[in-house]
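Lab notebook, page 48
Experiment: co-folding of the full assembly
Goal: obtain a model of how the components sit together before planning crosslinking
Operator: M.T.
Materials (sequences as entered):
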Amino acid sequence: MRPGLVIGIALAGLALAAALLSLVWTPYDVTALAISQKLQAPSAAHWLGTDHFGRDIAAMLMVGARTSLAVALVAVGIGMGLGVPLGLLAAAKPGWADELTMRGNDLVFAFPSLVIAILITAVFGPSAINAIIAIGIFNIPVFARVTRGGALSLWTLDYIRAAQVAGKGRARISLEHILPNIANLLIVQGTIQFSLGILAEAGLSYVGLGAQPPLPSWGRMLAEAQTMVTLAPHVAIFPGLAIVATVLGLNLLGDGLRDALDPRLRRAR
Amino acid sequence: MLRYLLKRLLSLVASLLAASLVIFAVIEVIPGDPAAYMLGMNAAPDTVAALRESLGLNGALPVRYLRWISGMITGDFGISYTYKVPVADLVAARLLISLPLTVLALVLSTAIALPIGLLAAARRGRAADYAVMGGTQLGIAVPNFWFAMLLVLAFALNWRIFPAGGFPGWADPLAGLRALTLPAVALALPQAAILARVLRSALIETLGQDYIRTARAKGLSGAQALTRHALRNALIPVLTILGMQFSFLLAGAIIIENVFYIPGLGRLIFQAITQRDLIVVESVVMILVFAVILVTFLTDLAYAAVDPRLRARA
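Observation: model returned without errors.
Model output:
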């Protein structure tokens, strides 16, 4: 296996393990405040130190991993769940369906996920759910484009023509022949959107449009750390490192999967 | 070329209209009564009625939409509910900070990415290439606002070379530029990493083409073939990314302004959200979306200028 893929699996696995472990165990209770212990540097008792409320940073990072991964994962789910059928439809029915889907895509592309989040928050108030919806909406045209692109090239191939001659409808061909053949493409894109989702969630929570207290989130930890960065730099450094490590891991995983799943790239190596 | 231009222009107008309908629907239709929403639960009914009147919310929806959109076109964005001044004045003052910040970041990101991407492509498979690929992989993973905090820690608080935040205004352009330097670097570096990678792979692809071999056979050196022939042809994917980066940078600028307490569009919109000043939110969002659509349009024109085949196809 390539070293990039190994590092990717290790880093992404670490974030996932921390998130899962936090469901049953954290070194300290993240809701318990201990002001007397505030802003302590990393030590044997608190591996990554404590924040301005005396909460254990390692424990908060573990629970924050849960928020980040869950938001990004559901947002990818929304993007795939709606984008892939739209892309399949656009490829299967050239003409008005294709035109309508693609113009709709262009429209959504004009709204960066931050702007969607601003719109949603202005009307419904900030929450992690709204962050999921904003990132999810942004993911839809991404998956629709990738699906359409992959599917269009398949529709010209002989075995698809053969399936048509055999009497299969366009919907059935899309599901039985097109979808399995673009699955690799979607898995790779899914990994990329997953890592982008983690960055987006961090950004939204940082400006207050995402996860709200008391739900720990990496982005909000950074927002709270900002005013204390001179007093205790570790409060700002560790959550950032957690984001970098997770995103880097997912990107390496995506690149590794793309190379491993694409037989042409494998041969070229 | 004229037909291509007209077609793109038509699609620009259609996109703007569609986007404005979406924004109008979210801000003015979904909340039910925006006036009641802006004033909160405990507002007296006659206060709500007065605000409805002053916001012009009593007309039918299509009339209100037309009034809003014609106002946007003529530069009348309405009056801010919290600031009591025309939204257009508020936005214009903030744009004078956010737009230079975005453009500065775009220039920086391109200036960093071009030499790095060229170097990696020219030294493909060698140490320099691996260093660039590793460094850019890391750069992509860094959230810009966190990077901004690290920059403040190092260059403002530790070494005191740049201010840690705030904006002194453009009266002294140098001081203004100094205040925007750290924010622009924070915005530019992660985007430069993406751009450098795209440029590298585009260059490597064009370097494998026959005309590059012809150029080399004619006696051009590797560096000459790279800069004279390959670079121009690798520009199409680079332009795509640059166009997309503008919207990322604009959105990023909104977040970065929070790190540096810069009074730009970002600060304006977040204050407007907390104060439920829907008129300001609506106008700023429309301006942001307008900027993204306009840049997409300009990118399309730039393609046509770089690649004559695209003009012919349209």
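Interpretation: Chain B touches chain A through 46 residues (CB under 8 Å).
Next step: discuss with group before ordering constructs.
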